Structure formats: C-alpha cells, structure tokens
C-alpha cells in the first residue's frame, strides 16, 4: 500500500487499526504524516485514536457490520490492543492483509501459550523464562502446592487479560496460593517464582512481510505498582553484554513467530550472583509499547513509523537513536495531585525545561493509574537529560 495513492474508484490509501487507545492515536499520527488516510474501530466515541482519525467506526470488536466496514475502508489493518478478539482478526484477514496475525496475537494473549512459545525457541541466546507452573484445575493447584515448593514465594497471574499488574497476586505460601486462585475466580493461571529483580528492560522489534527485521537497542524500564513509570533510553542504560543478548533473543522470538509488525519483548535482569545479573524473558506485546514512546522524539524512525512501514509493506529503516532520552509516564494521579482534582499540572514550568516533549492523549477524565500522556526528555548528553528529568519529575509530583 503506497502512501498517497488512490484506487480506480478514487478511494485514498487507508490503513485501519483495531482499538482506539493512545497507541492507536500515535499510529494514526504516524500514518497521516506519510499521507495515509486512517480508520479506527473502537466503541468509545471519545477514544484517543478515534478523535484524530479520518474514519472512526464506533462499534464493538465483535460486531460483524463494524468489522466489514473497517475492511471496506482499509487496504491493510493492524491492532493496537492485544485483547482484541482473535475472531475479529481472522474475519478481517479473509479480505485484507492483517498484521500481526490472529495466531500470534492469540499466543501473546495467553501467558500459558506465550511461555510455551518462549520455551520452544531454541536459540534465545541462553535466555529462559521464570520457573513457573500452569494452574487451570483444582488438581493442578494441589499438585503445585505439594510438589513445587520452589515456586514460592511467587506471583499468580491470570493467563488472560492481565495488564499493568492487574490480574496478579503475590503469594508467600501454599495457603495464600489457594486463596489467591479463588480470588482470581479459579480461571486459568500461571504461578511464577518471584525473582530478585535488579532491573527490567524491553526490546522493540519490527519485522516485515518479506522477513526483513530491524530492532531498537533495549530500554531500561522502572515500574511502580506494576505500571511503567520511567524508561531510560541511552547508551550505558544497562551492561552492553546483556543488552546484546536481549536484542538477539527478541529478534529470535519475532522470527520464530513469523511475526509481521512491531513486537515488544520484556525482560528481567535477575540477581544470579554475577555482577551483571542474568536475563529472563518476561512477556511480549504484539504491538508498539509504552516503553518505546521515547522513539518518537529520540529516534529518526519511531516505533509507530515502523508499525506503518511493516503494515504497508514499505522498506524498514534501521532505526537510529539521535539523542539520549528519558520518558516519564503521566498517569491520572499527576492531575489529581495537582490540587483541587482534575486541575492541569504546571505545564508552563515543565515545558520551559530544555528538551522536554509533551504528549497528551486527549483523555478527558483523569483517574488514578490511567495513562493520560507522557513526557520525553532529550538532550545533548545523558547527564543533562537526567538532570532535566529529575526537575520535571519534581514538578509533576
Ligand atoms: P503485566 O502484563 O501487568 O505487565 P508482568 O508479568 O509484566 O504483567 O508483571 C508486571 C510487573 O510485575 C513486572 O514488570 C515486574 O515488575 C513484576 N513481576 C512480574 N513477574 C515477576 C516475577 N516473576 N518476579 C519478580 N517480579 C515480577
Ligand atoms: Mg509487563
């Protein structure tokens, strides 16, 4: 699909996206910059992506008429939301190129399949996932309680629909494990051993229809209460040997999946007694990722540009980072703490700091933990970026 082109009937080249959140919004921005028209399917009339798209189809992800309209309008379709129903992607794929495909999105939607996939990738540069057990039945729960004491203390995670630390319970012992499984409704879960984390990082990979692969250097991520708070993206953000292995493993995961699109793979750096620590693969997201937002301001092609390039079948540039960067997530708490509730933070002071790039997603209501925007800080060197990031964080509370 070439940008700016029109078909015989005069219909302009249009890229479609399932889901209207902030990731969809930034995809729409990237597509429009290249001259594409865009179509967003999201039930919410005020969705961040729907607000800025040429077409906004306001229906449920299951609605056959809405999906047909999306396919009608779009030459190729992607998703910004990993919990989009696999049937929706399958239905669209009958008539249009869809990337990533239903099968790989299905794997990423389910921690049990995801971990099995990681285990099946033979050449992950020596990286494995955390020790874990599947708990889908009371018998499995009892077997884990009786035979897998090494997994405790651990984290019980629902196999499906978890994000930002939701659908997870930390458990110390066998009794807490049983209570936690009941609390999660007895749904399919994995119990993961609690690992001593030294750091967390993630790698963005983009792979085209023709198998061309490019990747970004790993970014180091700091989570607070299970939600990403800060991303550090600059040379020296982690030991180079670990960074190389994480990147290799992520590329290998994308290749094994026959993945098309942008994939984010999250890793733990675990204290294994060595100075650098060991690498453990955590999970993957079949889409651009919050930890890659710095690429908008610090790289000559962003993760959203690459999502457009992969979807449209354009050649992929090897992304080059031209500036060190730190990204601060702006959660609803920043607004709520600004005083009086729903007041605006002090943008005048934040924006007067050098190298600040403010991104707001157009969400009207601030709520605790809600991702309202992010602030990326770039600069001539890491020391100055860190200094500005500290001042910005201070202003934002
Ligand atoms: P989500 O889908 O919510 O991002 P994750 O599995 O990435 O779920 O877990 C969220 C956060 O919880 C991680 O980024 C990490 O900080 C912490 N965490 C998850 N699993 C483990 C583990 N096995 N050991 C230690 N910390 C963990
Ligand atoms: Mg995660």
UniProtKB/TrEMBL annotation:
PROSITE patterns the UniProt entry points to: ATP_GRASP
Keywords: ATP-binding, Ligase, Nucleotide-binding, Purine biosynthesis
Residue ranges constituting the ATP-grasp domain according to the UniProt record: 119-312
Binding positions for ATP per the UniProt entry: 111, 157, 162-168, 192-195, 200, 223, 282-283
Enzymatic class: ligase
EC number(s) per entry: 6.3.4.18
Cell inner membrane keyword on record: no
Catalytic activity: 5-amino-1-(5-phospho-beta-D-ribosyl)imidazole + hydrogencarbonate + ATP = 5-carboxyamino-1-(5-phospho-D-ribosyl)imidazole + ADP + phosphate + 2 H(+)
Gene3D superfamilies associated with the record: 3.40.50.20, ATP-grasp fold, A domain, ATP-grasp fold, B domain
Pfam families for the chain: ATP-grasp (PF02222), PurK_C (PF17769), RS_preATP-grasp-like (PF22660)
Pathway of action: Purine metabolism; IMP biosynthesis via de novo pathway; 5-amino-1-(5-phospho-D-ribosyl)imidazole-4-carboxylate from 5-amino-1-(5-phospho-D-ribosyl)imidazole (N5-CAIR route): step 1/2
Assembly notes: Homodimer.
The protein's name in its UniProt record: N5-carboxyaminoimidazole ribonucleotide synthase
UniProt organism field: Hymenobacter glacieicola
Record gene name: purK
